[in-house]
Amino acid sequence: LYRYRVGDILKVTGFHNKSPKFQFVERQNVVLSIDRDKTSEADLSKAIKAAEIELEPHGFLLTAYSSFADTWSIPGRYILFWELKLRDSNTDQLKLDSNTMEQCCGRVEESLDFIYRLFRKMNLIGPLEIRVVKFGAFDELMNFFVSRGAAPLQYKTPCCLKIKEAIEIVDSRVVGKFFSNGNLA
Fold first, then answer.
1. Do the strands 174-179 and 60-70 form a parallel or antiparallel pair, or are they unpaired?
2. pLDDT in tens, 7-22
3. Which residues contact 110 (CB under 8 A, 6 or more apart)?
4. CB atoms near residue 17 (< 10 Å)
5. Rounded to two decimals, what is the model's pTM?
């Protein structure tokens, strides 16, 4: 038995007897947007998967992520919060290579849609930023949402943060900030 939210986007993949089988596609209205650009949860997830390729040779695993559209900056930009850990280690002390992380930023941007890339070239959207957070930051985020009434067993890390207090919780645990160099093809 699965629980979906009203407004979730589902795909019918078949039937079992007369009951439909569903595949989860994305949450409704989970979108990053600065101007007229629109980035869905599915698009962001695909872009982040493309960037994870840059982490593999260095032994890093992306354990959790979230994002928000920073509209306080001019121009506005997408900010991604990434929680990383070393594949073969229990330590949370990461030595982050700025070149690798900047390549991750670039990979994410290259994987986003045409409108995003066009607005970046026109400087209507600022460089994408990845903020690496301490291991456990997303546990603190979960504690925040549970304290506001979310069910702990049904909690899923939000793809896009929109509540200021939630952004502040994750932002207070940042250990590194990296920006796209802006060279979009």
1. unpaired
2. 666 788 899 898 888 7
3. 50, 117, 184, 185
4. 4
5. 0.83
Q: Which residues of 29-48 are buried (b: 16+ CB within 10 A; e: fewer)?
A: ebbbebeebebbbebbeebb
What count of Cα atoms within 13 Å lies in the side-chain half-sphere of residue 168?
A: 4
Over residues 55-100, the pLDDT tens digits come to 999 999 999 999 999 999 999 999 999 999 988 776 666 788 899 9
Enumerate the β-bridge partners of residue 24.
10
Q: Round to whole Å and give the CA distance between 95 and 154.
A: 33
Give the C-alpha separation, 9 to 142, whole Å: 23
* Dist CA 38 CA 23 (whole Å): 23
- Is the dihedral angle over the CA atoms 19, 24, 27, 31 positive or is it negative? negative
Q: Which helix (H) or strand (E) holds 129?
A: strand 129-133
Q: For the chain, how big is the Rg over CA atoms in Å? A: 17
| Nearest partner of 182 among 103, 113, 115, judged by Cα | 103
Q: Which of 23, 77, 24, 84 is nearest to 48 (CA)?
A: 84
What size, in residues, is the chain? 185
